[in-house]
Structure formats: structure tokens, C-alpha cells
Amino acid sequence: MKPTISIFKVLTLCVTLAFLPKQAWSSLFDQVAQEKQVNASILWLIALQESAPPGTLIPHPWTANFNGRGYYYSSREEAYFAIKQAVNDGFKVDVGLMQVNWFYHADRFNNDLWSALDPLTNIRVASDILLDFSKHGTFEAIGRYHCPNWQLDWCKDKAHTYANSVIRRLRHYE
Predict the structure, then answer these.
(1) What is the pLDDT of residues 101-147, one digit of tens each?
(2) Cβ–Cβ contacts within 10 Å for residue 120, how many?
(3) What Å distances lie between residue 43 and 71, 109, 166, 168, CA to CA?
(4) Where are the domains of the chain?
């Protein structure tokens, strides 16, 4: 089940995305932000946190995380089959650009894994998850996106660390 993508392929994709007009790539985040009334920058920064290959500043749409490790696939098809196999093998998998956890949120995609790998759909679902936590404020919503069960101290600590990491990225871009 190891991905067949090479570092070269990941970098090629990232460079390709980087040279798209900024509006073309960011327009997905802007579109969802307008539809859902969420902050486009927060969505973008969470995508960077969740799916940008190490050392890059571009989120990768066909990313999965299972067994504690991130995998970057060269195509939607390749990601789909690898994730499907991981799910069948019993892994709890984070899927796509925003790394939405399939085990907990498959229903938000109508249990359609292919749909979960569509960047626009993935961003929409992520924004819905953020909105679910928005009553707690932006910082806590970001943290709960990563680890929602704040009744557990370890989860709350993990969420704070995650939110701080996202906020640090925001300060980097200001």
C-alpha cells in the first residue's frame, strides 16, 4: 500500500500549483469562505498545516494520513485507491486537501470517497466542521478542528498546539 509518488512528482505538482495565477488556486478558498461565511485565510492556513508537503508552501489536494504518516499521491485516482485500501484495512484516514477524518466525517461526503478528494468539496466540509465549533471562538474552533474532544486534557493540549501552529503561519503571511 506504499504510495508510488516520488518527491520529484510532489515538487513538480507544487511548482505547477505555485505558478497558477494566485486567484485560480485561492479562488476555491475564497468561494467557500463567501458561501459559508468563514475566513478564507484560516481555511488556507489549515490546508497548509494539513496537506502541504514538508518544505513547501502549497497544500496538496491528494494527501492522506494513516498510521500516523502523511502520503502525497500524484493523482486523485492514486489517492482514491490507496485510501480505499487503507480504510478497508481498518485505518482511520485523514483525506484530501483539508485532511478531513474519514472515520468521523464520511457522512458529510455522503460516504463518497471520490467526492472527499475533490478539493472544493473537501474545503466545504472542512468549513462546516469549523463552523460547528465557531461558537467557541476562532482559536478554539481551529484547535477543535484538529482534536474536538476537549473533555480530555491530552486532546485539549493537542488542539492548543495545533491552533498555535496555524496562527503562527498566519503571522508569517502578514
Answers:
(1) 999 999 999 999 999 999 999 999 999 999 999 998 899 999 999 98
(2) 16
(3) 21, 18, 10, 14
(4) 7-173
